[in-house]
Amino acid sequence: LPSFKQEWFDYYKSLIALRKNIPAFTYGDYEFISIADKKNILAYTRQYQNEKYLVILNNNAEEQIIFLPNSIVTKKPCFQFGNADLVTNRKLNLPPFSGIVLPFYP
Q: How far apart are CA 95 and CA 77, in angstroms?
């Protein structure tokens, strides 16, 4: 049998909580967006009623620094993994294979 990994358990538990507590991740529409050309960054929005979230995933083995467009005004992250960090309201540090979910106003 594989050994139990608490870190993975906590990660999946937090993803389940995110989906259960935020209707946009269950019922919302999604739209892929381009915020970092040619950097292998996956970004998309989820929206349901008046809630909108920006999901950004770094699919690289190297850290990426991303600057959000001026049209996106974010709040405090509601989910982070892999030490992803919102440094300012525009700058994101994304370590290898990390991600972040940000509530925002379009």
A: 16
Q: b or e along 73-100 (b: 16 or more beta carbons within 10 Å of the residue's beta carbon)?
A: ebeebebebeebebeeeeebbbbeebbb
Rounded to an integer, what is the distance from CA 60 to the centroid of its chain? 15
Task: Look at the alpha carbons of 80, 60, 30, 7 in this order and tell me if their dihedral is positive or negative.
Answer: negative
Q: What is the pTM of this model?
A: 0.85
Task: Please name the amino acid found at residue 106.
Answer: P
Print burial letters for 14-53: b (CB count within 10 Å at least 16), e (below 16): eeeebeeebebbeebeeeeeebbeeeebebebbebeeebb
The answer to whether 59 and 99 have CB atoms below 8 angstroms apart is: no
Q: Are 64 and 58 in contact (CB under 8 A)?
A: yes
List, for the chain, all residue ranges whose pLDDT scores fall below the cut of 50.
Answer: none
